[in-house]
Amino acid sequence: MTASADLQKNLSDEALLDLVQRQTFRYFWEGAHPISGLARDRTNRFTDPSDDAIAVGGSGFGVMTIIVACERGWVKRDEAVARLNAMLNVLDRSTCYHGMYPHFMNGATGATIPFSRKDDGGDVVETSFLFQGLLCARAYFDRDSAEELRLRQRISYLWEEVEWNWYTQGGRTVLTWHWSPTNGFALNHDIRGWNECLITYVLAASAPRYGIPAQAYHEGFTQGRQFLNRRSFEGIELPLGCDWGGPLFLAHFSFGSIDPRGLSDAYADYWRQNVNHTLINYAYCVRNPKSYKGYGPKCWGLSAGDAVTGYAASAPDNDLGVINPSAALSSFCYAPDQAMAALRHFYEDLGDRLWGRFGFVDGFSPQHDWYADTFLAISQAPIIIMIENYRSGLLWKLFMGIPEIQQGMKKLGFKSPYLS
User: Helix 377-391 vs helix 13-29: angle between axes, to the nearest 10 degrees?
Assistant: First the structure.
């Protein structure tokens, strides 16, 4: 059966959103590691990987998709709890590094799989993506049943054991991305903004036992060379980040959980930041200065993902002629009309080439007559999560209602309707 055989015609907007969310969720349910249920980094269009590698950050995003699936009735509540406990069975016994997890690990045993020669230990950012999902699950599965109580207790235990302050290298006012027992802090990669790592500082400031001081945020993350921008691109002011805004996942990864509506601090209004970043990306694709085939009001979205020559971070200042469906579809919150136009084009006009068993493939380029044969966890999950936040605000409400998170965000100087 070809992918086009599954295409449905004349769907309403709501029915199409339902279909896309549910089909994409299959990546994290049917396509997950067969023992642990943790998320594979990537999967082929027609076949599953033959190894046991899973992605820690992708698994955190996957937890959030399970919450959505439970809320919408795609899986039963007890099935969701059982899957999450299976994931925790491996997370419990996996090798950790002062409470942090690696980028990749074996989904059956929990053993670390080195990401690169010296990146063979804790990854603070991937761990952040994991815990934003786990904390949302702890908030959502709040019933008094033995299994849900056990789930919450297990998540709390792991959360309390993460030594965020260890990754300041003894008290520097900035977090360091990596540490391992074999290479220490040799990579010495400071986590400075603007990028996808706002969630890292929020979690580190919110930690109940090993938190970081507010100075690490104000003197570390916000002091990156590309933190403040305040210049205009496509006639739209960009408060933060590199010129042209960078890949669109910057508006998605931290904001699957952190609600940007009404969120501000001394540096930016984060709703304005994400809306403007999205509109700059959209306007650039519509203007299409490189005259790439296919670009236009219904075909836009530059982000990180699989490209013609391999994985790449596409953006207006690094335009490779490749559209990443997740870029537009994860932007429903910020530009719903533009995102719906893209969704209908991807599904109704290009579905025979883009649509598959786990939703839309990771990227495509009409210019090069190239269509990816892969799905990536960190591309598929934001589609489900951000569409859900557009429709119901579910993940935003869960995360922003967590007492530790509220305390941590107040500590960093954030203002939000949740913090009043």
Answer: 140
